[in-house]
Design goal:
This protein has 243 residues and is an alpha/beta fold. The chain is 37% helix and 29% strand. It has 8 helices and 9 strands. Helix 6 links the parallel strand 7 and strand 8. The longest helix is centred in the middle third of the chain and has 17 residues.
Length: 243
């Protein structure tokens, strides 16, 4: 990987790169230990209206590097972050543009699968990780809408955390089919008062997950109110199954 920037923050090395993807450049950021090669990789899919550097992604990445010496990777989703330089700015516009694309762009999910695959290939071929590094995926909301189909077909992923999503929406049929294909340990996070994905559709999606090892974690609160303890629990879950 060719990095365009790097910053070392007390043992956590943060680097940016661009890879050639299905629809042009894939904006990538990687956090990794400064003084050791990572044996684990966690791919983090961000939510709608955010980007690869939104606050909870950066904080969670820092935690995973410091606590578990993992390499953590995030990329901008469709019409988010640096991918929307030609679309203009506005705090709510990425969310609205994503909803429009989710409803009309039949290729969006497959393009994102391709971009995640390209990114994982590049990371595992880099000098940041050992060749046999174990891989996990963590992504909520849009990170599940676009991440669940990726995880369902990527054999290198050994465990995942999904959630803040339900069996609903324009790609309902595909998400349900892909959920049934999952065979890896899966933790599913939900918010009991989620205003976007009511508990009934979230529970239906959890029920569709095909893994024999699956855990449901429900917390009170609205869509964006995932408490810190849920992040801690999800990290423990991933590394229990990566160990």
């Amino acid at each position: 990987m060719n990095f365009t920037s790097h910053r070392d923050a007390n043992g956590v090395l943060e680097r940016e790169s661009e890879l050639l993807g299905s629809r042009g450049p894939i904006p990538v950021v990687v956090w990794s230990p400064s003084e050791r090669i990572a044996e684990h990789v966690v791919l983090v899919g961000h939510g709608a209206a955010g980007d690869k550097r939104e606050d909870y992604v950066v904080a969670f990445a820092d935690y995973l590097v410091r606590r578990h010496s993992a390499a953590v990777v995030s990329i901008d989703g469709p019409v988010h972050g640096r991918r929307r330089e030609y679309l203009g700015l506005g705090s709510s516009q990425p969310f609205l543009d994503f909803v429009a694309a989710w409803s009309s762009d039949d290729a969006m999910t497959d393009d994102m699968i391709s971009d995640w695959t390209t990114t994982l290939d590049a990371v595992l071929q880099s000098d940041m990780t050992v060749p046999y590094a174990k891989v996990a995926y963590w992504g909520l909301s849009m990170g599940t809408i676009l991440g669940l189909p990726f995880v369902a077909q990527e054999p290198r992923i050994a465990a995942c955390v999904l959630g803040l999503m339900g069996a609903t929406g324009p790609t309902h049929d595909r998400i349900t089919r892909d959920a049934r294909r999952l065979r890896i340990p899966t933790m599913f996070l939900m918010q009991w008062h989620d205003q976007f994905f009511p508990r009934e559709v979230a529970l239906t999606l959890f029920d569709e997950l095909g893994s024999d090892i699956k855990t449901l974690v429900a917390n009170p609160g609205v869509h964006g109110g995932v408490p810190p303890r849920a992040f801690d629990a999800s990290a423990r879950f991933l590394f229990e199954h990566l160990a």
